[in-house]
Design goal:
Radius of gyration: 26 Å
Structural class: alpha/beta
Number of helices: 22
Strand order of the largest sheet: 2-5-6-1-7
Distance between the termini: 35 Å
Largest sheet: 5 strands, parallel
Number of domains: 3
C-alpha cells in the first residue's frame, strides 16, 4: 500500500513518469500527426499532459522532420507574467509582441540546429542587429527584450530606456527600427529594415530548404495573465490574430493549448476570427477513457499486479477487464443501496463541476487522497477493508473534502477573486437556490443576484436548472464539503428529486 502511487494530479509535476501511463487517445494521435493547432480543454482536462508529451518526445519529432520551439517555461514563473505590470497599449502592439517573440524563438531554433543558407543567415542577422538574438536568453528575458523593442517602435516618444543592444558588448545603443510592423509609422526608417512578416517568409524559406517543419507550442496561458481578466482577453485575442497571420506559412505552425473556459470568455463578446479557425480540438472525457486513465496508473504498480494476479497489457486491452480490476481494488459501492452508484461512477459524480465535465485532475486527486486516508486508517488501528479490496468506503468519503477544498481555493478563489465574497456567504447554506434565495443570502436585489449567479454558472460552480425565465441553481457535489453545504432546497425553492446524485 505504501508504495502504491497514482502519480501527480498536475501534468507539469510528473514529466518524468507521464509517458509510462499516458493514454494515447485519438485526440493525442491528431495532435501528434499535426492535424490540430488549437487544443481546448477544461481545467485539469489533459491539455498540459499532451503538451508535456510533445515536449518530452522532441527527438521523435525531429526524426519526423519537425523542430520544436516551446514558447513558455514548463514550470516556475511564466515568461509572460511580467506583461501584467506594463502591458502593450494597443492591439497592434500586442500582436507585434507575439509575432516578434515567436519569430525570435524560430531564429533561435534555426541557429541551434545550424540551419545555414541565405534566408536563415539574413533572418538571424536581422534579429541580432535588433538586439534580440544575443546568446542563450531565457524566455522571461527574451519576452522583456521583445516588449521593449515593440514599445519603442509603436511609441517613439516614450521615455523608456532604449532596447537596442550591441551584440558584442551588450551595451544599449540608440534605437533604430531594424524590424517593422504592418503599416505603422516608424520613428526612424533605416536602410535594410524588414517587416516582421517578410522575416517570417525568410524563416519559412530556410525551413523549406532543409526539409523541416517547426512547431511553436504554447501552454500555461491560464497563469500567464492571471492577474487581470481584461488583460487576458486582450492578450489572447492578439495571440489568435497573430495565429491567423501565420496560417499562410507552410513550414511554421503555431500550436496553442488553452483552457476551454478561457476560450469561451474571449469569444463571448464576439470574435470574428474564431470562425476561421478550423484546426481545433476540444478534449472531452467519458467514463471509458477516464477508467483507462486510472487503470494505466494503477497497473504500473508491480506489487498491485502481483497481488491480483493480472498482466498490465491484458487489463489495458479491455474495458471489461479494467472495470473488473477496479472493482477488486475498491469497494463495490461507497454508499450502500440498490439505487446507489458503483464506486467508479460515485467518483465521477463527485469530481464534476457545474458544466457536468469530469476531468482527470480531480479524479486522480480523489484516488490519491483516498490512498493517503487509507494509510491513516491503518496507522490508527482501523480494521482492513473487507475481502481483497485495498480501500475502504470510508477512505473515499474522507478524501473528498480535500479535493473539494483544493478545487474551491486554488481554482475558484484564486482565479475569480471577485466571486470569493459571494461564495463565502454561501457557506452552510442549502445546495439548491433560485434568484430570491440567493438575493436573501447575499443581501442584494434579485436582478443583481441573477447576474452573479450567471457568472457562477459560467465558472462551473452552479449548474443551472429550470428555464431561463425562472432558473434555479444547483451546487455540484465537488464543492459541497469545502463550503459545508446542506443538501436540499432553500426556502421557497421547489425541491429536486435527484439531489442525491447530479442531474
Amino acid at each position: 500500500m505504501k508504495t502504491l502511487s497514482l502519480g501527480q494530479r498536475v501534468a507539469e509535476e510528473e514529466r518524468a513518469d507521464l509517458a509510462s501511463y499516458f493514454v494515447e487517445t485519438e485526440h493525442w494521435r491528431r495532435v501528434w500527426e499535426g492535424d490540430v493547432d488549437i487544443v481546448l480543454a477544461p481545467k485539469g482536462g489533459g491539455k498540459s499532459a499532451i503538451y508535456s508529451m510533445l515536449v518530452s518526445r522532441e527527438s521523435d519529432l525531429f526524426d519526423r522532420g519537425i523542430l520544436l520551439a516551446p514558447g513558455e517555461n514548463p514550470t516556475g514563473a511564466p515568461a509572460f507574467d511580467q506583461v501584467d505590470s506594463d502591458p502593450p497599449t494597443s492591439e497592434m502592439e500586442f500582436v507585434g509582441l507575439w509575432k516578434l517573440y515567436f519569430l525570435t524563438l524560430v531564429a533561435q531554433v534555426l541557429d541551434n540546429y545550424e540551419v545555414r543558407g541565405s534566408a536563415s543567415t539574413r533572418l538571424i542577422g536581422q534579429l541580432r542587429e535588433a538586439g534580440l538574438l544575443t546568446g542563450e536568453l531565457g524566455k522571461r528575458t527574451l519576452v522583456r527584450r521583445v516588449m521593449d523593442y515593440v514599445r519603442r517602435y509603436f511609441n517613439p516618444s516614450s521615455a523608456e530606456t532604449t532596447v537596442s543592444v550591441d551584440p558584442t558588448t551588450s551595451v544599449p545603443t540608440a534605437f533604430t527600427a531594424k524590424i517593422t510592423f504592418g503599416e505603422a509609422s516608424v520613428p526612424t526608417q533605416v536602410v535594410g529594415a524588414l517587416n516582421v512578416d517578410d522575416l517570417y517568409l525568410l524563416a519559412d524559406e530556410a525551413l523549406e530548404t532543409v526539409g523541416y517543419q517547426l512547431w511553436l507550442v504554447l501552454d500555461r496561458l491560464d497563469v500567464a495573465f492571471a492577474e487581470s481578466r481584461d488583460l487576458e482577453k486582450n492578450a489572447l485575442r492578439a495571440l489568435f490574430r497573430a495565429y491567423r497571420d501565420l496560417q499562410p506559412l507552410s513550414h511554421i505552425w503555431l500550436k496553442i493549448f488553452l483552457r476551454s473556459d478561457i476560450w469561451r470568455d474571449i469569444t463571448a463578446e464576439g470574435f470574428r476570427e474564431a470562425s476561421h479557425f478550423t484546426r481545433e480540438l476540444s478534449l472531452a472525457w467519458n467514463n471509458a477513457t477516464l477508467l483507462q486513465l486510472v487503470m494505466q496508473r494503477l497497473v504500473r504498480n508491480q506489487g498491485l499486479c502481483r497481488y491480483y494476479g493480472v498482466q498490465p497489457m491484458t487489463v489495458l486491452a479491455s474495458v471489461h477487464e479494467q472495470r473488473i480490476l477496479f472493482e477488486r481494488v475498491y469497494p463495490p459501492q461507497v454508499d450502500l443501496g440498490t439505487r446507489k452508484p458503483k464506486t467508479f461512477d460515485w467518483c465521477l459524480a463527485r469530481t464534476k463541476d457545474g458544466h457536468d465535465e469530469p476531468t482527470p485532475r480531480e479524479l486522480i486527486h480523489l484516488l490519491s487522497a483516498t490512498r493517503d486516508r487509507q494509510l491513516r486508517r491503518y496507522e490508527i488501528g482501523e480494521p482492513p477493508p473487507a475481502g481483497e479490496a485495498l480501500f475502504d468506503r470510508q477512505a473515499l468519503k474522507d478524501a473528498l473534502p480535500e479535493v473539494s477544498e483544493v478545487r474551491l481555493t486554488k481554482t475558484l478563489y484564486a482565479e475569480y477573486s471577485a466571486l470569493k465574497p459571494h461564495l463565502e456567504r454561501l457557506e452552510g447554506q442549502k445546495t439548491h437556490h433560485n434568484d430570491a434565495s440567493l438575493a436573501a443570502v447575499w443581501g442584494i436585489e434579485e436582478s443583481e443576484a441573477r447576474t452573479i449567479a450567471d457568472r457562477l454558472v459560467e465558472v462551473g460552480f452552479f449548474e443551472r436548472r429550470g428555464d431561463r425565465q425562472q432558473p434555479t441553481y444547483w451546487v455540484p457535489f465537488m464543492y459541497r464539503p469545502a463550503l459545508k453545504l446542506i443538501q436540499g432546497s432553500a426556502d421557497g425553492v421547489a425541491p429536486v428529486s435527484d439531489d442525491t446524485e447530479p442531474g
